[in-house]
Design goal:
The chain is of the alpha+beta class. It has 33 helices and 13 strands. The strands form five sheets. It has a four-stranded mixed beta sheet with strand order 4-5-7-6. Helix 25 packs across helix 30 (779-789). The longest helix has 32 residues, at 46-77.
């Protein structure tokens, strides 16, 4: 038996005991103490000293982490009625003026106790962002929106120059900064000539926007060029650069067919609305893939028809129109010395109606015309169909006309000439009208309105649409800004950061070019595959649940399953234009040649290119590779006639998605978005399109009746929600207008069940891991927290009113509380008592 060794500076002893027989506990303990005492009496080797220092440092770091962790947990949980997370029973206590309620639920650990939470930098950052977004002073059973977003709302106050700021907008802001970094760096030797050309277009457009000195120097000149061209069109003059100095012909009493057609086509070709709208989409009732001409209402200067009923808003709008008409009026004033020669010295006849007044100066003329334009638009607004019908009833808004029959209802226009301005070699035989009475209304309105007022209307539409592209010292920019401040509640004089604003304009104008580089920069690894899996799992869950819906019969369930199977899913980026091909992008934007000194001209040219590109699809079959959104867009959509759901790479980023997140977060945040778009295929409007995108009644009458009962329940629920009108009253949400979006939000239940279906697998594979500081919440609770927090949004009162009047989406608060209060799984997760706001006695249940 070897003798014990003496002390040595060399580390030769084994790190692990290799003896076959394990020592007894007492022997191990006695040996340990003996060794410890002996060690304290021996001098330390160099290695021992190093190890001792390392141990002390690790001990210190561990103590700091434990202290921070305990502090965070204490801050989260140690309030009245809410014990620390080591206790499995958690209580929320809410004190009101009338009662005290204690809500108790059992918190199930997010994973087995022996698995520590993830401690990587990414996990710590993610956990911190979730914790900081919460307001734990609020009972989640009372106001879940505030509970999940209170911290974020406080940390992200509304910028003075913005009408709203949300999680969506914050991510969009981050995305455009990535685009900025891409377009402002120099091309590398590896950059292809085609990509270099695309980058130059992006950079030139960006520089033209940022070149404020030039914008101020040229003032109204670019807009005056356009309005001069527009006035000639109205007066029947052919405009070109060679005859730009040719004086305007006198304006008659009425605008002729040629002039009215030319002026309308001029506006529409530049993406400016006026009188009516024309667009190309599938013939939903015959062949959804055959691209057909569509006619709809348009042309209001205010955001919605309701604004024309408010005298204060109409006054402000009239003032803005007067300012732009005066700024763009190139008719010289009558000299003061000449005015005295006119007789009588007062307007004649004194009761008015005597035509042009020779004593009227430019300002007076602008005010008079602005009042007439406002009156014209009031009548136009009255002719508009309410948006809840326009958006939610595709059968009502599908009215096919032969082209000859259509033109007979609007004899004031030369529609063959109008269409030839966009697509001279492609003449339609059919046009689909969304609201036939609108044709008769505008025909009568045009016939009753004199030429001077119609010209002023066209000029005002052009000026107010393009005002933002001018220098900020111009009268037109100021007039439009003043109106915007009223309508959106913006702080006077507070202007959005120019850099952010210009980058957003670049993205809107050249989004597929920017998107090619954005995808290369941000959308790598397994992002596309993992996002697609979330979507596929939700679709599978949806299909399997249809047979369990008590209101849907077997025949309709089978048809719905077939439609869900047929839905085309697009994730990340399009293939038309092909963002994986440098040549495809260059070809797509070939007509656009930005001038670094001409911002307004650049934006108009990109709009023209997009409009003419749309018209090229007329009479052709749908390009199934085409997208309606850019790759960097923070949004998603469902297209009923195409039967497709689309998810750009822009939204597949935190706080919506990350390929490295635990699945309960991914299925809640991005899964909530995916389920929303899927469920749109079966909402109040989407359900009327079958699996081929064709408009027809493909559910049985019984199923349709039961669906409508549940849809009406949801509409009534949301119609009770209100926003402050800023005048001491409230404006109610239009539950009919928001019906489709609310039903889409209700699809969250499918994201929840899709997550639960793979939970066991996730636990086994490690994708259900715990985040530090969040162990006190169950995975079910974290799922709903992750969903709730994506809707965080601060908003000006005026902007909230505008949203309620114009947007088919409900306000953010109700997209959380309204949705989750209808989901029993939410109330169960937080153990909300019956009849609390988030666990109401009556639910509007559709998908569960």
């Amino acid at each position: 038996m070897a003798e014990p060794r003496g002390p040595t500076d060399e580390e030769e002893a084994p790190l692990l005991n290799n003896n076959d027989e394990a020592p007894s506990l007492s022997a191990e303990r006695d040996g340990f103490f003996a060794s410890f005492i002996a060690a304290t009496k021996e001098p330390l080797s160099l290695l021992s000293k190093i190890l001792l220092v390392v141990c002390l440092i690790l001990l210190l770091l561990t103590s700091v982490f434990i202290g921070l962790f305990a502090g965070a947990e204490h801050k989260l949980k140690n309030r009245e009625g809410l014990p620390l997370p080591t206790v499995t029973t958690t209580q929320y206590a809410t004190q009101t003026t009338t009662q005290t309620r204690t809500t108790t639920y059992t918190a199930v650990p997010t994973q087995s106790p022996y698995k520590p939470p993830c401690s990587t930098t990414q996990c710590v950052t993610l956990a911190a962002s979730i914790l900081s977004s919460l307001d734990t002073t609020v009972d989640p059973c009372d106001d879940f929106y505030q509970f999940t977003n209170g911290g974020w709302l406080k940390e992200n106050p509304l910028p003075a120059a913005k009408a709203s700021f949300s999680q969506f907008q914050k991510l969009a802001q981050n995305n455009v900064q990535i685009i900025k970094e891409i377009i402002t760096r120099d091309p590398t030797p590896e950059t292809s000539p085609a990509d270099a050309a695309s980058l130059k277009k992006l950079k030139d457009l960006y520089q033209s926007c940022m070149n404020e000195a030039t914008l101020e120097e040229i003032g109204h000149e670019p807009l005056l060029n356009m309005t001069r061209e527009l006035r000639k069109a109205i007066r029947g003059q052919v405009w070109n650069k060679a005859n730009d100095e040719e004086p305007l012909k006198p304006l008659g009493e009425k605008v002729g067919k040629v002039g009215l057609t030319a002026a309308t086509a001029y506006l529409h070709s530049r993406g400016i609305s006026g009188l009516f709208g024309m667009y190309i989409d599938g013939d939903a009732a015959v062949d959804p893939d055959f691209m057909t001409l569509q006619f709809t209402q348009d042309g209001l200067g205010l955001p919605a028809k309701e604004y024309y009923e408010e005298s204060s808003v109409v006054t402000a709008y009239t003032r803005a129109v007067a300012a732009v008409l005066e700024a763009l009026d190139e008719t010289p004033d009558t000299p003061e010395e000449a005015r005295d020669k006119f007789w009588p010295p007062i307007p004649w006849p004194p009761w008015g109606g005597g035509g042009d007044n020779p004593r009227e100066n430019r300002t007076e003329r602008a005010v008079r015309l602005a009042e007439s334009v406002a009156d014209f638009e009031i009548k136009l607004a009255k002719a508009h169909l309410d948006l809840d019908i326009l958006y939610q009833d595709p059968f009502f808004t599908y009215n096919p006309y032969s082209f000859d029959n259509f033109t007979s209802h609007l004899p004031e226009f030369d529609f063959p000439a109008y269409i030839a301005a966009f697509t001279p070699r492609n003449f339609p035989e059919k046009i689909i009208v969304s609201y036939p009475p609108y044709m008769k209304s505008i025909s009568r309105l045009i016939s009753e309105t004199n030429a001077e007022v119609l010209e002023a209307y066209f000029v005002a539409r052009t000026a107010l649409s393009l005002a933002g592209y001018l220098g900020q010292t111009t009268k037109v920019w100021k007039a439009n800004r003043s109106l915007d401040e009223l309508l959106r509640g913006l702080k006077k004089g507070a202007v959005e950061d120019r850099d952010d604003w210009c980058l957003a304009r670049v993205e809107s104008a050249l989004g597929f070019a920017a998107g090619r580089f954005f995808v290369q920069e941000t959308f790598g690894g397994q992002s596309q595959i993992k996002a697609a899996k979330v979507i596929d799992d939700i679709i599978t869950t949806f299909k399997s649940s249809l047979s369990k819906l008590e209101w849907m019969d077997k025949e309709s369930a089978q048809a719905a399953s077939e439609k869900a199977t047929a839905i085309r899913v697009k994730v990340g980026y399009p293939f038309y234009p092909n963002t994986t091909s440098d040549a495809s992008i260059v070809s797509y934007y070939r007509p656009v040649k930005p001038d670094p000194t001409r911002f307004l001209d650049n934006m108009v040219s990109t709009s023209k290119a997009e409009v003419f590109r749309m018209w090229l699809t007329l009479g052709r079959m749908r390009n199934k590779d085409a997208w309606e959104m850019f790759p960097s867009t923070v949004n998603a959509y469902f297209n009923p006639p195409a039967n497709e759901i689309v998810f750009p790479a822009g939204i597949l980023r935190p706080p919506f998605f990350s390929q490295d997140w635990p699945t309960y977060l991914s299925y809640a945040s991005f899964g909530g978005v995916a389920a929303h778009e899927l469920t749109h295929a079966f909402d109040s409007a989407g359900r009327m399109y079958n699996q081929r995108g064709k408009l027809e009644e493909w559910w049985t009458n019984s199923t349709s009746q039961h669906f409508d009962e549940r849809k009406n329940c949801i509409a009534e629920q949301y119609s009770k929600y209100t926003v402050d009108d800023g005048k001491g009253g409230v404006v109610h949400v239009n539950g009919n207008l928001t019906s489709g979006e609310n039903i889409g939000d209700a699809g969250l239940i499918y994201a929840y069940h899709a997550w639960k279906a793979q939970e066991t697998e996730g636990l086994m594979s490690g994708t259900e891991y715990t985040l530090p500081g969040l162990q006190g919440y169950t995975r079910e609770q974290l799922f709903f927290i992750a969903y709730g927090r994506i809707w965080g949004r601060n908003m000006k009162t005026a902007a909230a009113v505008q949203q309620v009047r114009t947007d088919p989406h409900s306000p953010a608060r109700y997209r959380v509380d309204g949705t989750l209060s209808n989901i029993p799984e939410f109330a169960k997760a937080f153990n909300c008592p019956k009849k609390t706001p988030m666990n109401p006695a009556k639910r509007c249940s559709l998908w569960s």
